[in-house]
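Protocol step 4 of 5: obtain the predicted structure for the target chain.
Materials: sequence only (see below). No template structures provided, no constraints applied. The aim of this step is simply to have a reference model before the mutagenesis design in step 5. Sequence pasted as it appears in the construct record:
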Amino acid sequence: MRLFYSAADLWLSKRLGVCACEESSWGSIRPLVRLVEFSGHVVPWLFGTMYTLVRGENVAEQEIMFNLVLALLLDLMLVRVVKTLVRRRRPTQNRSDILSTFFVERYSFPSGHATRAAMCARFLLAQLVDTDSMRVLVVGWATLVSLSRLLLARHYVTDVGFGLAMGYCQYSLVERLWVTWDCLQDLLLLRLGERLNRAYSGLWIADWKH
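Step 4 output (structure tokens):
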């Protein structure tokens, strides 16, 4: 997979890594950039979405949150598959910290933050956001999260670019696989019925033997 290592990609990625460490040219804003980076991490997204799902006030809201959970899990799975296949190492100037030591994978392509930012931005724009000001905020957030990965030298430019395209396409898959609340209830009732039938059959066999 050496084809990803073009000279322009390496040069531009190195030039953009201005917050790679405290000694970098923009090292003074590194804590702020790391905060933006964390806003695109899967942990707060999953916990926040699951909390909203449980505390949802109506069925429509719970349906949206349930599908967002599925979308986040789908994103994790697809990114892991691609990273395992490509096995591109992170930029040499990348510096590990407490969060990256425990939560950041060693492979670089594609950027999971970029895929998640693009997918969640499309999801929010399609399902929840209905004002122009909020649309600007959502798109701006996705842009800043993706840019933070370059400023911190976590990824190469092609990692982030491909990640954005991949995340954008992932939402189309989420739309096709959308699970309605009625469909979920039917599935749960079907599984419950199967369990009850197995339990009843087990009791009937036990009584027959006695």
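Step 4 remarks: The chain has a mean pLDDT of 81. DSSP finds nine helices and no strands in the chain.
Proceed to step 5.
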